[in-house]
Automatic annotation (TrEMBL):
Enzyme class: transferase
Gene Ontology cellular component terms for the protein in this record: Golgi membrane
GO molecular function: alpha-N-acetylneuraminate alpha-2,8-sialyltransferase activity
Gene3D superfamilies membership: Glycosyl transferase family 29
Full protein name: Alpha-N-acetylneuraminide alpha-2,8-sialyltransferase
EC number from the UniProt entry: 2.4.3.8
Family indicated by similarity: Belongs to the glycosyltransferase 29 family.
Location in the cell: Golgi apparatus membrane
InterPro entries, alphabetized: Glyco_trans_29, Glycosyltr_29_Sialyltrsf, GT29-like_sf, Sialyl_trans
Membrane topology: Single-pass type II membrane protein
GO BP terms: N-glycan processing; oligosaccharide metabolic process; sphingolipid metabolic process
Transmembrane regions: 12-30
Pfam families registered for this protein in UniProt: Glyco_transf_29
Length: 335
């Protein structure tokens, strides 16, 4: 009797331990400064910013050592030959072995080998509304955007119109384009907003994302679209995730924005980030919508946006990249 009691007590403790461990995994114990403190600090700093070449070079070195963005950011024929096993970075123990069919969809080698000069990375935050940053964003040599954002005329003044690389989450293909199982026309039409840019899809991150990504690729090539599909390399996504985890970002998954900033810091000489502002109140204490085009909140607990912002803000303060929050100053020469 007492033995049985002892045993059941033991298993209760075991269950409790597991629960606590799971809880800590999902909600790690760390103190995050509250939003108000961060906003106040950003206000104090104002638009002051000084580029620090030492820190830029150092950060690029760290990134290339951990993640080799130049060679690894996309799946290519070179880094993923026939028979290579690609392990999904967003799933436990799922893989895809490169076969004839998928191999033929990969680009030969990573484009963008040579260093890019000025890059704009555009997050889709509501702070971009009425920012007047469109011209600033567009004057960079390379413009990166997240998740197929709308670029229609009403937004151009605030977000610009040029795109060189845009990410697309497979879930958008599912929601907005019926998973491309029916007509592909509306997909192909709406992709024209991105000119002849690269479209960057995490095809090998989650199992359900693979087929929609491949279909998007077929839809583009079958219609001789000007866009070039690049599949995100799951190995790169994993190493970048680890890199930021080591620097204190405790998200289960990094946001697309932080991936793009990491990519930009690895590829570009000068990076400016726009529209990264995960707070519901702006610098002018006015409410800010979640995106510049809508106010749909993401599934909470998945990304750690304020935490990511603090990291980016550190890089801003050290002069490694420039964060634009709030309005862009009128362009020089313009009166
Ligand atoms: C750049 O950063 C390094 C180290 O973080 C520092 O030692 C150096 O003084 C900074 N340079 C400038 C010009 O601020
Ligand atoms: C792959 O395709 C090539 C040419 O299309 C063909 O010669 C080869 O037999 C195929 N290999 C397999 C494993 O299907
Ligand atoms: C591709 O670009 C060319 C030249 O810019 C343009 O004339 C053509 O209409 C574009 N094609 C598609 C499918 O968007």
């Amino acid at each position: 009797m007492s033995v049985r009691c002892h045993r059941s007590k033991l298993s209760v403790w075991a269950v409790l331990c597991v629960l606590v461990l799971c809880w800590l995994y999902i909600f790690p114990v760390y103190r995050l400064r509250n939003d108000k403190e961060i906003v106040d600090e950003v206000l104090r700093q104002g638009q002051v910013w000084q580029r620090n070449q030492t820190d830029i070079d150092l950060f690029r070195k760290l990134l290339s050592e951990c993640c080799d963005p130049r060679r690894m950011f996309a799946v290519t024929k070179q880094n993923s030959p026939m028979g290579k096993v690609l392990w999904y970075d967003g799933e436990f123990y799922h893989s895809h072995t490169v076969n004839n069919e998928t191999y033929s969809l990969f680009v030969q080698e990573t484009p963008l080998q040579h260093p890019l000069k000025k890059c704009s990375v555009v997050g889709n935050g509501g702070v971009l509304k009425h920012s007047g940053c469109g011209k600033d964003i567009d004057q960079a040599d390379f413009v990166m955007r997240c998740n197929l954002p709308p670029l229609s005329r009403e937004y151009v003044e605030d977000v610009g119109s040029r795109t060189n690389l845009v990410t697309a989450n497979p879930s958008i293909i599912e929601k907005r384009f019926q998973n491309l199982l029916w007509s592909r026309k509306s997909f192909v039409e709406s992709m024209k907003a991105y000119g002849s840019s690269y479209i960057y899809m995490p095809a090998f991150s989650m199992k359900p994302g693979t087929d929609p990504s491949l279909r998007a690729h077929y839809a583009l090539t079958d219609t001789s679209s000007n866009l070039t599909m690049l599949f995100a390399n799951p190995e790169f996504l994993r190493t970048v995730g680890k890199f930021w985890k080591g620097r204190g970002v405790h998200a289960k998954r990094l946001s697309t924005g932080l991936f793009l900033v990491s990519l930009a810091l690895g590829l570009c000489e000068e990076v400016t980030a726009y529209g990264f502002w995960p707070f519901s109140v702006g610098l002018d204490e006015q409410p800010v919508s979640h995106h510049y085009y809508d106010n749909v909140l993401p599934f909470s607990g998945f990304h750690a946006m304020p935490e990511e912002f603090v990291q980016l803000w550190q890089l801003h303060k050290s002069g490694t990249l420039r964060m634009r929050v709030g309005h862009c100053p009128p362009r020089e020469g313009a009166i």
